Amino acid sequence: MSELLTTLLQDARVWQGHRQHTTITQPAEATGYQALDNQLGGLGWPRGALSECLLDVCGIGELQLVLPLMKRMAGSGRTVFWLNPPSTPYAPALAREGVELDNVVVIHTSDAADFLWTLENCLRSPVTGLVLAWPGKLASRDVRRLQLASEAGHNVCVLFRERHHAEQNSPAALRLELMPADQQGLRINILKRRGSWPGQRCTLAMAHRADIGVQESPRVVSGPWPGTSR
């Protein structure tokens, strides 16, 4: 087998239906949960690609799921954007978890067009490490547009969407279905992942994590930003 073909087959974007377990290469960030990373082939959150967390209600542990990555990105000097969160992050809890608050920015947009424009610019910004976004309704063409922006920015983007969107096709590289489990756990079904079959499951304990989704914020800005044209 040629070196070029070997390299192509190791790329996570090349799906090999006859091989369930294969060594693949894909820029990614560890989730901070070994059980989940194991189910994701040791990769974690993909960089330069969209990830979707699909859930029925907020507050079941979805923020705790991204907390290790948030801490790592903010601690390295990269900006962590929260776009239209359903509740404002609680700054003292984030600080107790070791998140560098100076690198956390919360943005609330006025309508769907502003949301899409702001999210795309966050994804393309060289200062961005992580974008957490609650988009509401998105057309398929909008998701593809965001995927291209994420590829350009080479950062991590997690979209929190309603669970019924699992029935729709999506260009997102990773799709996780989130459901509450016993004893404040979080049950995760992997609906889609690059380079391998979906269907893996795991349950994570979240009882030790802080409640970070209540009413206080380190810094709030409203997009679009002054001096920037669409």
UniProtKB/TrEMBL annotation:
Organism: Marinobacter oulmenensis
NCBIfam families given in the database record: ImuA_translesion (NF033429)
InterPro entries recorded: ImuA_translesion (IPR047610), P-loop_NTPase (IPR027417), UCP037290 (IPR017166)
Protein's name in the database: Cell division inhibitor SulA
